[in-house]
């Protein structure tokens, strides 16, 4: 048995800001994917995944036992399948900010939801918010708190525009230019990041008046401008705003950036060969980059392997 594929995602813009109602833009990333699977002769990796899935299935069952309406998932069938060796066969690296737990949540919802909202029906704003809320409850097991956006992106496999926490819609983005000079890329930091401690650190910083003002007047302002520029295809304005956003992040979100990338980050701002930003909550995993000229960025970032995800 093998279920449908669910893809990784990249939150291009909106990390941390969407907690405080900035805009956000999330796109599917089909270089990595996962699917629920059962094998007659599972290998060690499948067995480990099955054990983790068993813990998660029991958690969902406990939530459902307390309030079936809050967790409309057929946990009886899920537990039965887990007992028969069900596991999540995934190539999405964990702790890298590209939605490994989101893809798992989407896969479980697709297979076990009661009264499932399908991708093919008319996805009203009300249905999208209902999905997002349920996905948030399902994914909170992994992160302590979840917006539900990663599973939503994986489930719909469409770009998602976040206007505010309670205002989301699927959207279209300009077609890639496969011959384009500029683009968006990922760099592997070489270390795993954990979402929960990073979000906790952010919430601590939010108690500071100066940090709150910076978030509103600089971080959210530049994030919103980047989202609008990207969707409208205004590349020259996008790079101006990306540079401003990258500068704000290195100044005010330093703990979320792995130490060895601090100077690399500043070099990009000084040379204008590339601009870096957080991919998800940071602390490790992937770092997201934007370059007006990908060849120049590759030369400047020679020690790192750039994975291009979008070309302008």
Can you walk through the features of this model?
- The protein is α+β, with helices and mostly antiparallel strands and 312 residues long.
- It has two domains: 165 residues, Ribosomal Protein S5, domain 2 (2-Layer Sandwich), CATH 3.30.230; 129 residues, Alpha-Beta Plaits (2-Layer Sandwich), CATH 3.30.70.890.
- It has ten helices and nine strands.
- The strands form two sheets. Strands 1, 2, 3, 4 and 5 form a five-stranded antiparallel beta sheet that branches. The protein has a four-stranded antiparallel beta sheet with strand order 7-8-6-9.
- The chain is globular.
- The mean pLDDT is 94.
Attribute tags:
312 residues, Alpha-Beta Plaits, single chain, four-stranded antiparallel β-sheet, alpha+beta, 10 helices, five-stranded antiparallel β-sheet, Ribosomal Protein S5, domain 2, globular
What is this entry, summarized?
By secondary structure, the protein is an alpha+beta fold.
